[in-house]
Amino acid sequence: MDEQVVRRRRGRQAEAERNDRLVLEAAREVFSVQGADASVASVAKRAGVGMGSLYRRYGSKTQLLQRLCVLAMEQAIDAAEAALAAKDAWTGLADYVRTSVAAGSGALAPLAGTIETTPQMWEISRRGRKLLDDVVARARKEGGLRPDVTSLDIVWLIEQFGRRAAARLGAQDENVRLRLLAIALAGLRARDADPLPGTPPTAQHYEGRWKYPRSARARSG
Question: What angle do CA 194, 91, 172 make, to 5 degrees?
Answer without folding.
Answer: 80
